[in-house]
C-alpha cells in the first residue's frame, strides 16, 4: 500500500460494478456491487503500486507528483480518473524504473 495519498477526488459518485455470480433469491440475476469513485481509484492506485513498486519509496515522491499531474491533465480532458491514473503511470513510471536502468 502506498505510504502517501496518491488520490485526490473532488467529487464523489457511485459506480455500479457488475458481479458475475447469481444473486441469492433472484435466479439467474446478476447483483450489482456499489463502489465509490474513491474506492475504484484506490484499487487502481494499488494496482499501479504493484506494477511499479518503486513508486512506494520516498525517493520517488517527485515521480508520483508527475504521475498525479498527468492524471489530473487527462481527467481535465474527460478521461475517467482510474484510466487516467493508469495511463499516466504507464507513460511516466517506466522512465524512472531503477530495475530497467541497470
Question: Top keywords for this entry?
Answer:
3 helices, two-stranded antiparallel ribbon, mainly alpha, disordered N terminus, 102 residues, globular
Describe, in plain words, how this protein is organized in 3D.
It contains 3 helices and 2 strands. The two termini are 26 Å apart.
Topology:
Elements: E1 14-18, E2 32-36, H1 37-51, H2 61-76, H3 81-96
Antiparallel strand pairs: 1-2
Helix pairs in contact: 1-3, 2-3
Compact description:
The chain has helices spanning 37-51, 61-76, 81-96; strands at residues 14-18, 32-36.
Characterize the overall form.
globular
Strand coverage percent: 5-15%
Strand arrangement in the largest pleated sheet: 1-2
Mean pLDDT figure: 75
Structural class: mainly alpha
Measured as a percent range, the helix fraction is: 40-55%
Amino acid at each position: 500500500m502506498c505510504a502517501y495519498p496518491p488520490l485526490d477526488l473532488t467529487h464523489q459518485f457511485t459506480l455500479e460494478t457488475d458481479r458475475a455470480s447469481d444473486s441469492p433469491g433472484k435466479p439467474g440475476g446478476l447483483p450489482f456491487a456499489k463502489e465509490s469513485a474513491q474506492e475504484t481509484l484506490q484499487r487502481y492506485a494499488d494496482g499501479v503500486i504493484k506494477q511499479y513498486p518503486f513508486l512506494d519509496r520516498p525517493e520517488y515522491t517527485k515521480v508520483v507528483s508527475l504521475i498525479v499531474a498527468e492524471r489530473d491533465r487527462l481527467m481535465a480532458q474527460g478521461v475517467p480518473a482510474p484510466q487516467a491514473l493508469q495511463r499516466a503511470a504507464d507513460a511516466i513510471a517506466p522512465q524512472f524504473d531503477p530495475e530497467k536502468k541497470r
